[in-house]
Amino acid sequence: MTSLDTATIVRLSDRHPRLTGDEMLASLVPPPQFGSATFETYRADAAYPSQQEAKEHLQRFATGGTQSVARGGLFSFGRRKRSAEPEMKPGVYLDGGFGVGKTHLLAAIYHAMPAQRKYFGSFIEFTSLVGALGYQNTVQLLTGSALLCIDEFELDDPGDTMVMTRLLGELVKTGTRLAATSNTPPNALGEGRFAAQDFLREIQSMSASFETIRIDGVDFRQRSLDGGAVVLEEDAYESALGSVGAPISDDGFDELVDHLADVHPSRYIRLVDGVAAVGLRDVRQLTDQSQALRFVAFVDRVYDAQIPVRATGIPLDAVFSEEMLRGGYRKKYLRAISLLIASTHA
Fold this sequence. Notes:
The protein has helices at about 20-25, 50-65, 100-110, 125-135, 135-140, 160-175, 200-205, 220-225, 235-240, 255-260, 270, 290-305, 320-325, 330-345; strands spanning about 10, 90-95, 120, 145-150, 175-180, 210-215, 250, 275-285, 310-315. The protein is of the alpha/beta class. It has two domains: about 5-20 and about 220-345, Rossmann fold; about 45-215, 3-Layer(aba) Sandwich (Rossmann fold), CATH 3.40.50.300. The strands form two sheets. Strands 3-4-5-2-6 form a five-stranded parallel sheet, sandwiched between helices. Strands 1-7-8-9 form a four-stranded parallel sheet. The longest helix has 16 residues, at about 160-175.
């Protein structure tokens, strides 16, 4: 029996959040931790010159400046021969490992671009918007927007490939500019996950809209933390949760993982709405890929909301099996591990 004050406890597995299309659209803004992110607050690591080069280039992109060729051939900003075409491609694509500040720079673009209609969301949020409103309604709603910022661009199935390439293609034709982040270059999206060759034309079409900017570096979260995820014994777990504030969530790991299958990933942010800390009991290693990917999406939303996590069982940085870490979603899992370590130390 828990010694926690039951009046301050919520169970995420009892929550069944709903989001209307209008609510989804209104929520397409940078998450709280990047609510005031600017180029000035981005701290480039001097050991990796591509970070400063990316920052300077993206400042020009956000304010409509002219592109230039960077040293070292990292960027290929070829001018088009036809004068009727714009000098810049309509999109920038930030490619690099997790924890090098891509999302910060993406939010900085959003804040720096002088436009009334602009949207910032995860890849899942944009595909969910299409699912909720229908394709044509989504196109009509987003047409006329100056900027779309898409964080963690991933093509995990052919359906998403088709939807996003069509959507972005239509919006680009009407003048919308694009900025996206991913751990995978645009011409390699979907690689190792589905028959990418069957969708090569669609992937290349999308890639043609972006200028790829490579950002090197090491995970800033690991630079400031020692060791792995914090794991707690039962008494310490309850004490740690009780000291955070209220309300707090307290769920069995298996119960939460099962519940995530019944909630669309676009609504995960509402699962943790108003929660001061997330508590997970009896964490175990995941071996089912669908469960693991849903948990990754959940971790993203928890981290975006800057909610600390307290857990018992195995350390959360060991939640993904070795087989998963060798597979096509390796970078997704490694990024989630980085977020989990930081969240358990928060």
